[in-house]
Amino acid sequence: MKQIYAIGVGLIGGSLAIDIKKHNPDAIIHGISRKDTTLNTALELGLIDKKATLDDLENADLVIVSIPVDATVKLLPTILDKISDTGLVVDAGSTKEDICKVVENHPKRRNFLAMHPIAGTEHSGPTAAIEGLFKGKTNIVCEVEKTTFKLQEKALKLFTDIGMRIRYMNPKDHDRHIAYVSHLSHISSFMLGKTVIEKEKNERDIFDMAGSGFASTVRLAKSSPEMWTPIFEQNKTNVIETLEEYINNLTHFKELMAADDFAAIYDEMKSTNRIKNIIDSPT
């Protein structure tokens, strides 16, 4: 795959471009964005080799779509309209059900591979792109059977070459699981940040007391609202379900404290400690 078009050259699109170029020096990376300033920055940083437009997609061997998920839903059918019969389109969105549904009856559905690389930081834009972001990370691929075998084979090799592990899942299960391990984490971080900021209005010293625990917990609150609001909207049902369970646990913790039942609180935390064995275990 030599002619590669990145629609969106921020953290994910830009990092993919860096790693793909590193492993495929002959590849030519074309950048597409609504903002010319974004493309200028991507050129200066060496993320892309050339600027392009949607009308150039007929020349693409591979199109990587890394834009907010609501924009992906709107634009994806048009992208598939424009590519050649041998071109492949992949998206990197954090939700999959709506994205897969919008192209389920498209004549070129076989030219599309739905994926979600589980990697990222709280930063956004071209300057956030980094080399090696995907090394050792899991890439969820949905409905792989709907993609032409020759194209899926090329894409999966490309992504395993840059260090990603591939896992297969249907879109519905993906969106349900990711609500727990990603979307809820972001909401928790945003709301913790909101709580502290509101308190800080009256207590100016509060941030002087914030340590590494606060910094790591609230890190995700620095993420882009432009990206995350559409994610929450598309995955609304699953996110509400996870929030209800989370709120129930918080309420239960509060009730234990009110009852001075610190033995039960200890047991709750001790039981939850086993998560370290799950997260830290080798895969």
UniProtKB/TrEMBL annotation:
UniProt-listed SUPFAM superfamilies: 6-phosphogluconate dehydrogenase C-terminal domain-like (SSF48179), NAD(P)-binding Rossmann-fold domains (SSF51735)
Protein known as: Prephenate dehydrogenase
EC number: 1.3.1.12
UniProt organism field: Hyunsoonleella pacifica
Keyword hit for Oxidoreductase: yes
EC class name: oxidoreductase
Alphabetical UniProt keywords: Oxidoreductase
Domain Prephenate/arogenate dehydrogenase: 2-283
Stored Gene3D superfamilies: 6-phosphogluconate dehydrogenase C-terminal like domain, NAD(P)-binding Rossmann-like Domain
Gene Ontology molecular function, alphabetical: NAD+ binding; prephenate dehydrogenase (NAD+) activity; prephenate dehydrogenase (NADP+) activity
Organism domain of life: Bacteria
GO biological process assignments: tyrosine biosynthetic process
